């Protein structure tokens, strides 16, 4: 959500307008083959701080040498090997292994989510965006 959209939402709440119109979710991202994961605990690499990472839908080559059943079971070692192959900016295996557990789970579910159909992913993304928008609207009224 952009700064302007957030500012407009705050003004609507201040005027007491209907929160239903305030809590409408933003449009889905243009590329459904990229999932953005925001970190609770950013990665610090020298003087660079990585607060979010894009996870690209893995191609077959990125899965080479990995067990799909282990990946679908969210096996830690398998996810640690795959994430550097599909992340932008590319994370190292060491950085993935050192992630906060909540951040690691977010990345893991983003990767595994690509194994669902496009319709299932779009529905899940829409539900997540609706929940985020409702939480933001609720926090503005509190």
Task: Note the topology.
Layout: H1 3-15, H2 19-22, E1 34-45, E2 48-56, H3 68-72, H4 76-86, E3 87-88, H5 93-97, H6 101-113, H7 118-141
Antiparallel strand pairs: 1-2, 2-3
Molecular structure report:
The chain starts with a helix and ends with a helix. A three-stranded antiparallel β-sheet has the order 1-2-3. 53% of the residues lie in helices and 16% in strands. It contains seven helices and three strands. The chain is of the alpha+beta class.
- The coarse overall form would be globular
Low-confidence stretches: none
Q: Percent helix among the residues? A: 40-55%
Pairing-aware structural class of the strands and helices? Answer: alpha+beta
Instruction: Write down the oligomeric state.
Output: single chain
Hey, roughly how much beta strand do the residues contain?
A: 15-25%
Mean pLDDT rating: 83
Q: C-alpha Rg, in Å?
A: 18 Å
Count every helix, treating DSSP H or I runs of 4 or more residues as helices.
7
- SSE series: HHEEHHEHHH
**Number of DSSP strands?**
3
- Quick one: biggest sheet? 3 strands, antiparallel
Keywords, please?
142 residues, alpha+beta, 3-stranded antiparallel β-sheet
Short description:
The chain has 142 residues and is an alpha+beta fold. 53% of the residues lie in helices and 16% in strands.
């Amino acid at each position: 959500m952009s700064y302007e959209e957030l500012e407009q939402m705050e003004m609507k709440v201040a005027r007491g307008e209907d929160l239903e119109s305030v809590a409408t979710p933003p449009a889905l991202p243009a590329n459904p083959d990229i999932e953005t994961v925001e970190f609770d605990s950013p990665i610090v690499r020298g003087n660079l701080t990585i607060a979010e990472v894009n996870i690209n839908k893995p191609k077959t080559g990125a899965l080479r040498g990995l067990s799909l059943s282990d990946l679908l079971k969210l096996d830690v070692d398998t996810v640690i090997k795959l994430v550097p192959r599909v992340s932008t900016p590319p994370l190292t295996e060491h950085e993935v292994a050192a992630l906060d557990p909540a951040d690691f789970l977010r990345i893991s579910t983003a990767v595994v989510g690509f194994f669902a159909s496009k319709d299932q992913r779009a529905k899940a993304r829409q539900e997540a965006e609706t929940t985020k928008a409702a939480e933001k609207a609720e926090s503005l009224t509190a």
